[in-house]
Amino acid sequence: MLKQEWPPQRATKFRQAGFVYVHVAILYESAAWGMLTSGLLPERFGSPWLWLGAGALVTAFIFVGLYRWQNVWFARIVWAMHGLRLPSLVRGAFFAAPAAVTPPAFYITAIVVVVINLCMLARAGWDI
């Protein structure tokens, strides 16, 4: 059974984590849209439109999972998967090639946003 029952304070943490995740996804989708309209997205993995659509579907699934199911393991898995973004963001922010097109500030901002999201997911998943 996915749905768990929690005291109101803990249920609020799951709902907050869901809304924060949606806002992070909006930021990521907006960045991808900006890169798409600037011609910066590669097509070696398929159409960028396909990936934008997939991102929206994944976002909807995770939001529903956090908001409705309020399952600690779901929150923990999302936390772990979301944390996998950090190595590439750190590389882009601090170890980018001199000819990199994207400025380090882009990656630093993404690091801050991802860490905030990780904190909200941890509050839900581990009740901290």
Describe this structure in words.
- The chain is mainly α and 128 residues long.
- It has one domain (9-126).
- The protein is 75% helix and 0% strand.
- It has 5 helices and no strands.
- Helix 3 packs antiparallel against helix 5 (104-126).
- The chain is globular, with a radius of gyration of 16 Å.
- 17% of the residues are buried.
- The model has no long low-confidence stretch (mean pLDDT 94).
Low-confidence stretches: none
H/I helix tally:
5
Evaluate the radius of gyration.
16 Å
**Which H/E pattern describes the elements?**
HHHHH
Q: Report the principal-axis shape.
A: globular
Fraction of residues in helices? over 70%
**What does the largest sheet look like?**
none
Instruction: Tell me the domain tally.
Output: 1
Mean model confidence by pLDDT: 94
Distance between the termini: 23 Å
Secondary-structure-derived class? mainly alpha
Percent range for β-strand residues: under 5%
Number of strands: 0
Blueprint of the fold:
Elements: H1 8-37, H2 48-69, H3 72-83, H4 86-94, H5 104-126
Helix pairs in contact: 1-2, 1-5, 3-5, 4-5
Summarize the structure.
With 128 residues, the protein is mostly helical.
Keywords for this entry:
128 residues; mainly alpha; 5 helices; 75% helix
